Structure formats: structure tokens, C-alpha cells
Amino acid sequence: MLQPYFGFLKSTLISMSRNSLNRWKYEVCKLSNETSNVAPDLATLRRRNLEGRFAIWNTTMGSSLLAMAWGLEKSGLLPGILINIAVAALCLYTAYVLLRVNEKHGIMGHHIEVPELCRMLIGKWAEVVAKIFSLIVLTGANIVYWILMSNFLYNFVMFAYGVLTEKDVQMEDSSVICPKNIVLSMNTTTIFKPDLNYIQIVTTFYKVWDLYSTVPVFLAAVMFPFLNFKSPTFFTKFNSIGTISVGYLLFFVTVKSLNWGINMESWSSELHLKPTFCALSGMLSLSYFIHNIIISIMRNNKHQEHNGRDLSIAFGLITFTYIFIGVFFYISFPLAKTCIEDNILNNFSKRDAMTIIARILLLFQLFTVFPLISFMLRNDILVTLNTISKNCPLGNFSYGKVVIINTAVLFVCIMFACFLPRIGTLIRYTGALSGLVYIFMLPSLLKMASLKKERALTLPKSIFHILIIIAGILNLISQFFIDDNGSTISVSFTFGILNNSYKQK
């Protein structure tokens, strides 16, 4: 009975890219149903539903799960839980508003999306804004995916290199590290054998294989051919990897937390709200972001009268999952809580057995999902170009345009992976910016426009929805006044520390 809700839960754990992929999957399913001359039997329908759920799960890169404990450290434990519930409730309300507005003002027989509703009820400018910020979400997804893939690939190769070149390599079961506390005086040569030839080889290897310079470029060379397929159908065959990797991530956090036990120096300090709490609210705006395709998802619900109930149950499960993972890892983490990284896998040595498995699974999952997200991004770009230039179809498909778009996307991803590889920063800024438009502003404006059209708009209702918009504006502005690292360390200095930590471990 909970399977449909759990499938919806999986669809929203990543915010960003998963949204447009869902829309693409629903259109493919609809087209295949329309072109089939034979009615599918019950087994076929069940298989299609299962494939759709795997496709949704596979788009869940786990970035919010990986960063949830980091978000709790920025806000405080109890305030973080309350902020999580409050943001979830607000996102649930605005998502439900979009469904209700579509029920009242959508056109029967037409697949209306949020941009079309904005054009009908608010104006052309709102439609343009909705499409632009949908592209921003997809671009942000690609960037975060790229940083994670570079990180996983780097650590996997580092582990393999250590196995091949070092003797008596020991696998570790619970090696926890704090990258922020790496001693700066250490260098790569002091931890290796005093053989000059060996040291020269090691030094050359680290120059060639560097997380913040060469690895993102090597990854691009491997990935680029897969981005130029006309259709990404091939990559949907690996949907089950998403189920395995996300399930393993939940298992990973649970096992680590149970092994560590509870490690809290002062429970009373966790009751107070920290000045950096906005990092969590910005991140959660993306963690619960599903608003640009919520209409498409719920349109496929068999019982439309239960949309509100189904949506509430789904958001409840999502909230529970985030709080469970974040709280478990946070209260059990054995080092100082300020050591928790925005990618919790960075808190483990590259020789930690469970971490190696997690990185391999997530790397393969992201490698199969990234082409799907890139396909949706380039498709939306071409559609937008066709909308802008109606008399001159710039958006028609051609491999030349595809190569140009993919090259530009990879260039942006590489730049961020080299100079700003902080997924926590990217998630909170993207979430606050896109959330302002899709979670706070557009649903509120659509609701007020709908009520005005029905002559039911009152002053209290106007004030309530204006306050929602103001909350979104404050959420965005506050992101510019907090520091992810909790200090004034410069970016280049921090990157140097992190780079040394990977090499030494």
C-alpha cells in the first residue's frame, strides 16, 4: 500500500535533475501507450510501474542525504529538526496549491505545466521566469553531480593506486577523519618509502591525478561521447543501480552510527539556534523541490481525488528519511561536530571498506544518470530557443547544436569542480534561488490570481501568501551572510588543506 508513496519519496530526494527526467519518462510512457495497438495486460502494467519507480529512484543522487548531517551542524540539532519539518510543511502546501490551481484552471485534454499556468493567470513574464529557473535547477544538478563523480572517481583511483604500489595494504573498518584538521606541514613525500625513484613516481602521479585540476577533465573526456546520443533510453536500463546505491547509503549510515554509539558532549548546546541556520533552510529548499513537475507526477495518479492525501504521505516519508539520516549520523559522529563534511563520505579514509563500496555504487549510478539530466537540459534549452525564435527555428535538433551545448555544460561543471567543489554551498544557493521562484513566489501568486478570478481573495489570504514570498526572499538573502566553513579561511587555503588530506589518506 505504501509502495506508490515510497516511489514518490524516491523522486524528491534530489531536487534538481530528477524533476525534468520524470517529465520525460511520463511523456515516453504516454507515447508508448498511444502508439500501441494491443492493450497491456496486468503484468505489463506492473512492470512499467516498477520501471518508472526505478527510474525515479535512479535520479536520486543522494546529495541531500550526504549533506543532511552537515546542515544540522550549521543549525543545531533541535532547531535543525524543527526547520526541516517547517520547510517540508511549507513545500507541501505550495505543491498542493499548484495541484489545486491546475484542477480549477487547467484545460481538459491538455498537459498543462507550471509555466503554462503562469502565463494564463499571471502573465507572459511569469512563464519566462518559470522556464529560466527550471534550467537553473537542471544546471545546478549537473554541477553537483559532476563534483560528486569527480570525488568518487578520484578516491577510487587513489585506493586502486595504493593497492598496486604499496605493500601490506590494510582495509579499515571505522577510520574517521577530519579534513579541516589536517596538519599543514605534512607533504606527500614524508609518508612514503625513502626510495628516490618511488618518491619521483608518487610525485608525478599526484601531479597528474589531482582532484581539483585534472580529475574533472579526465572525467569529461570519458563522459562526453555518452552525452551526444540523440536519445538517452540506453541509460534507463541501469535504473536498478539507483535502488541499490540509495538503499546501501541508508544501510551505511545506520551501521556506522550503531558502531559509534551516541557521542554528544553537551545536549543543552544543541537546543539553541546557530547563526548559520540559513545554510540548512537553503539546502532544504532544494531537498523538497519537486514543484516544477508536481502536476505531471500527480496527473498519473489513478485516484485524483486522493492527490492531497498521497502528497502529504509522500512528504511525510521524505521528511522522516532526511531527519533519520541526519540525526543518526550527527549524534553518533565521534569527532567534533564541526568536522562533519557536506559530503559525509569525505569523513572516512579511502581505505574504509564500506566507504569504498558506497563510492563505487554512487559513481556508477551518477555516471548513468548524468547523461539523462544533460539530455533534459539540452532539450529544455532547444525548446526555449524555439519559443523565443518562432520564425527562425533555432531549437531544431542537430548534432552540431548538441555538441556545442554539451561542451558548454561540461566547461561550467569542470570550472565548479576545480574552483568551488562545495556541494553544500551549491545546494543551498541553488535551493534558495530556485525555491524563491518555484516554492515561495509562483505558487503564492498563482493562488492569489486564482482567488481573485473567483472573487474570493481577502486581505488575510493576501497577507498570508505575501509573507510566504517574503520568507523566500529572506531565505535567499541570508545565504550571502554565512560561511560554510564557519571561519574566515580563504578558498584557496581551504582547497589546499583538503587536497593534502586526500593524498595523505
UniProtKB/TrEMBL annotation:
It is found in: Late endosome membrane; Lysosome membrane. Its main location: membrane. InterPro entries: AA_transpt_TM. GO terms for molecular function: L-amino acid transmembrane transporter activity; metal ion binding. Keywords: Amino-acid transport, Disulfide bond, Endosome, Glycoprotein, Lysosome, Membrane, Metal-binding, Sodium, Transmembrane, Transmembrane helix, Transport. It comes from the Eukaryota. Residues 52-477 form the Amino acid transporter transmembrane domain. The keyword Transport applies. The keyword Glycoprotein applies. It is a multi-pass membrane protein. The chain crosses the membrane at residues 54-72, 78-99, 128-148, 211-229, 241-260, 272-290, 311-333, 353-377, 398-423, 429-450, 462-482. GO terms for cellular component: late endosome membrane; lysosomal membrane. Belongs to the amino acid/polyamine transporter 2 family. SLC38A9 subfamily. This is Amino acid transporter transmembrane domain-containing protein. It comes from Aromia moschata. The lineage of its organism: Eukaryota, Metazoa, Ecdysozoa, Arthropoda, Hexapoda.
